[in-house]
Amino acid sequence: MAEARGVRSASAGRRVPGLRRVWCCSFAAAPDSPDHRRSSSTHRELRPSKTPPKLSHPGSFHSSPSPSSKLGLGIIDPRRILSPGRVSPIDSDGPLGPLPGILDAASISTTAAESEPECPDPAPKERSLVPDKPKTDTRVSLRERSLDLRLCLRGKDGRCLVLELDSAVLCESSAFFSAMVMDSTRKVSDADCQKIEVAGVEDVDVFKETIELMYEKDASRWLMKAGVSRAIGILEVCLKIMFDRGMRSCLGYIEAVPWTETEEEKLKRLFARSTIDKAICEDVLARLDPQDCNHSEDLAVQLIQSVTNATNGNARKEMRSLVNGLLSKSSVYQKEPVGLNKGSLYNVCHSCLNSLVKLFEEALNSIPMDQMTAGKRTKPLIERVSKQVENLNWLLEILMDKEMAEDFVGLWGNQKELIRMHERASPMLRYELSRISANVFIALGLRKLQCPGGMRFSILQSWFGPMLMDFGWLQRCSKGLDMRMLEESLGQVILTLRLKQQQILFEEWFRCFAGHGTECPNLCKAFQVWWRRSFVRTCEARR
After folding, report:
1. Where in this protein does the record put region Disordered (predicted)?
2. 147-191 per-position pLDDT tens digit
C-alpha cells in the first residue's frame, strides 16, 4: 500500500508523455490527468458568465448527488455511462474534451439563486365587510350598490354588532325600521351609506337572526333548523320591530311542532307580557289555555271511573299510579292540588259496591249459568271480586288524601247484604271483603281517619266478626297487608269505644282466640288495657 501511494504521488509530480491512465470508480470525481490539468486552467480563464441552472432531484440526498446533477456541474463527462459496481471504459478513438472545473458550494447556491426567476410577493389587501367583486359582473355591482344602510346593534351587556343591509328590504319588512330610515334620511341626505342604531338590545344574536329572517325566502325551513326556543326569541323581536311576516312564520312553526315544558313556560311568559292579535295566535293560545275543556274536578272523577272499569290488570295499575300522581298534593303537574267533587267520588264508590254485591250473588246462586253466558265471561269470579276490592281500597286512599273518608266508614258499616252473604260464601271469596275492613281499621288506628264513636262501633259491630273468621286467610294471602299493624290498629280502635262496647268485642275475640289460636288476631295487649281500665282502677277507686 505504501509503494502504491508512493507511485501515485510520484506520478502526480511528473508527466509521462504518451501514457494515459484509466480509472474506474463511478462515485468519485475524475482524477488528475494531464488533460484534466490543462483543461482546468483553461476553464478558469474561459469561465462562462452564466452557469447552467440547478437541477433538483427530490429523490436523492444532498450528500450523494445523482449522476444527472454531476453531469450538470461538469464533474462527469457526458460520454461516460456510469453504473455502481461496474467499469465503464472510455472510448479512446476520439480525444476527450476539456472537463469543466468543479464549483464550490458558495458558487452553486449563488448560481441557482441567480438562475431562478424572482417572483415578488403580492401586496397585502385590506379586508372589507363586503368582499371584492369583479367589475364586469353587473348583477354583483348592483348588489353592492344596494347595501346602502349600516345598522348598529348595541346590547345591554355592552356588545356591539354592525350589519350592512339593503334598506329597501328592511323598510319593506318592518315599520319600525322604516321610520328610523326615514328619520336618518332627513338628517343625513348626502351620505352614501346611512347609519342607524338600536340600543338596549336584550340579545344581540337573536336580533341579528331576526334581521336575517327578513332576507330568507323560505322562512319555515330556516326556523326548522333554528328550533322552538330560538323561534320564541325571534317572535319576541318581531313583535317589537313590527315584523308581521316573521311573526306569522314563527307562530306557524311553533304551533306545528311539540314543545318541552321549558319552552311552554317561556311561551306563556311571552304572551303574558306582550299584546298579540288573538286572530293570529288563536291556534297557539288554544294549546296553552283550555277554554272549552271540562272542569278539572269532573275530569278527575271521569279518570277515576275509567280506572275502576278497566279490565286489564297491568294497565289498571299503570293508570292508577298516573292518577295518584295527578291528584297528589306534591304533583309536578299542578301548582295547586286538583279538587274533587265529593258527591261524584262517592257515586263511584257506590258503583263498585253494587258490582261487588252482584258478584257475591252470582257466587251464591245455586242455578248454574248457561254456557253462552259462561263463554262470554273470560275472567274468573275470584279475579273479578279481587278487582272490585282493589278499586274500593284505592278509592279509600283518595278519600283519605282529600280528607273526605269519614262517610266511607259509615257506608262500609251499613253493607248489611254483603255481611249476610259473607257467612255463606266461600272463604276464598269472603276474605276479600275483610281486606277492605282491614284498611279501614288500620286508618282508624293510625289516626288517619276520624269519625264519631257511634260510627266506629257500627263498623266494628258489622265487620269485627268476619275479620276474626278471615284472619287466617289474610295471613296466608296478605297481598301487601301488614298483619302486625292490623293487629295493633284493631286493638287501638276497640279501645276508643265505651267500656261496655269494648267488653262486648273483647269477649267475642276471647272465645274465638281460645278456639282457633293463631288463626285469630292477637289482641292480648289491648285486652289487658281494657281489663285494667274496667276492673283494676274501679276497685281502687272504691277503696
Report:
1. 29-74, 84-103, 110-139
2. 888 899 999 999 999 999 888 999 999 999 999 888 887 766 555
How far is CA 413 from each of CA 130, 454, 465, 473, rounded to the nearest angstrom? 88, 11, 13, 21
The amino acid at 388:
Q
The set of residues, in sequence order, having a beta carbon less than 8 Å from that of 342 and lying 6+ positions away, is 402, 404
Contact by Cβ (8 Å): 248, 280: yes
From 498, 494, 419, 402, select the one nearest 462 (Cα to Cα): 419
User: How far, in Å, CA of 285 to CA of 463, rounded?
Assistant: 54
Q: How far is CA 484 from CA 316, 478, 521, in A?
A: 28, 11, 9
Per-residue pLDDT tens for 432-453?
Answer: 999 999 999 999 999 999 899 9
Give whole-number Cα distances, 176 to 67, 191, 194, 196, 217, in Å. Answer: 80, 22, 16, 12, 21
More confident residue, 461 or 51: 461
Q: CA dist 7 to 12, 74, 468, Å?
A: 8, 28, 137
Burial class, 507, CB count within 10 angstroms (exposed 0-12 / middle 13-18 / buried 19+): exposed
- The dihedrals phi and psi of 242, each to the nearest 5 degrees, come to 60, 50
Pinpoint the alpha helices (H) of 335-451. Answer: 342-364, 371-376, 381-401, 406-413, 416-422, 427-445
Q: Which amino acid is at 222?
A: W
Which residue carries 288506628 as its cell? Answer: 445
Cell for 518? 293463631
Provide φ and ψ at 194, rounded to 5°.
Answer: -75, 155
Report the range of poorest mean pLDDT among 325-329, 333-337, 343-347: 333-337
In one letter, which amino acid is 47? Answer: R
Per DSSP, 400 falls in state H
More confident: 464 or 294? 464
DSSP code string of 71-83? HHHTSS-TT----
- pLDDT digits over 396-416, tens only? 999 999 899 999 999 999 999
CB 151 within 8 A of CB 165: yes
Question: 3-state class of 6 per DSSP?
Answer: helix
- Count of other CB atoms within 10 angstroms of residue 137: 11
What is the per-residue burial (b if ≥16 Cβ within 10 Å, else e) of 270-279?
eeeeeeeeee
Rg (CA), the chain: 53
Name the maximum alpha-carbon separation found in the chain. Answer: 167
Q: What is the dihedral of CA 335, 341, 342, 347, to 10 degrees?
A: -130
Of 410, 403, 478, nearest in space to 438 by CA: 478
536 DSSP 8-state letter: I
**CA pair distance 401, 337, nearest whole angstrom:** 11
Q: Which of 34, 36, 4 is nearest to 17 (CA)?
A: 34
Name the E strands within 191-254: 194-201
